[in-house]
Amino acid sequence: MAHDTRVKICGLTETADIPAAIVAGASYVGFVFFPKSPRHLDLEAAQFMATSVPEGIVKVALTVDADNAMLDELTQHVPLDMLQLHGKESPARVSEVKSRYGLPVMKAIGIESETDLTQIDFYAKVADQLLIDAKPPKDAERPGGNAVAFDWSLIAGRRWPLPWMLAGGLTPENVGEAVRATGARQVDVSSGVESAPGVKDAQKMVDFVTAARA
Ligand SMILES: O=C(O)c1ccccc1N[C@@H]1O[C@H](COP(=O)(O)O)[C@@H](O)[C@H]1O
């Protein structure tokens, strides 16, 4: 039986990635604003790309511990529907960003072991969505987008009172199992639909969405 799993394809870097992600069936497209990432966009490129996204597809900006000056510039230049906070932002900072910019906020939470789950309850009180991702490896240059999965059994059967997405090391080959193991209704992918870091692959995007919904 097919499911209506919603997919976010994150880290689009080329204008042609937008129609490819939409044809594949993405419900969300993500733009990365983190200079250490191979998916980093400058504001001009992001503005151009975001403007070409049709109504109904959620445009998400991913930032890492961004200050107000950076978020002011970003939100003034790029038409956005959601902010994804992927750093060490506190629950208070999530609340502040939400009220300052009037956009829904998705907070990413890195999971490696059972103890990492306790913070979810604090963020669940202030965020609009949660992104349950793998904790980055110790020597990683970035807090996400590392093609690393966590032990999905840690969240099997868990439910939270707000929408959430599963992320971390998802690929067309493992996303079906990830959805079955966790009960996720939404999934987020970056590396798993690339042919090289920062280069999205149209066929992998199709394969990913198909497998997520199978
Ligand atoms: O994609 C990035 O480069 C990135 C940089 C900094 C923070 C987060 C980043 N990506 C996010 O991480 C998840 C998981 O990535 P992957 O599928 O394991 O490569 C991704 O969906 C982005 O939301």
TrEMBL record:
What InterPro entries does this protein map onto?
Aldolase_TIM, PRAI_dom, RibuloseP-bd_barrel, TrpF_fam
Q: Which UniProt keywords apply?
A: Amino-acid biosynthesis, Aromatic amino acid biosynthesis, Isomerase, Tryptophan biosynthesis
Q: Which Gene3D superfamilies match?
A: Aldolase class I
Residue span(s) of domain N-(5'phosphoribosyl) anthranilate isomerase (PRAI): 7-210
The record's CDD domains line, in alphabetical order, gives:
PRAI
Where are the bilayer-spanning segments? none
GO biological process: one example = L-tryptophan biosynthetic process
GO molecular function terms here? phosphoribosylanthranilate isomerase activity
Q: Which reaction does it catalyse?
A: N-(5-phospho-beta-D-ribosyl)anthranilate = 1-(2-carboxyphenylamino)-1-deoxy-D-ribulose 5-phosphate
UniProt keyword annotation of Isomerase present: yes
Annotated metabolic or biological route of this protein: Amino-acid biosynthesis; L-tryptophan biosynthesis; L-tryptophan from chorismate: step 3/5
Name of one Pfam family that matches: PRAI
Enzyme nomenclature, EC number:
5.3.1.24
- Source domain of life is Bacteria
Q: Which family does it belong to?
A: Belongs to the TrpF family.
Instruction: Output the HAMAP family linked to this UniProt entry.
Output: PRAI
Under NCBIfam families, the record lists: PRK01222.1-1 (NF002295)
Q: What is this protein's record name?
A: N-(5'-phosphoribosyl)anthranilate isomerase
UniProt organism field: Roseovarius bejariae
Name the encoding gene, please: trpF
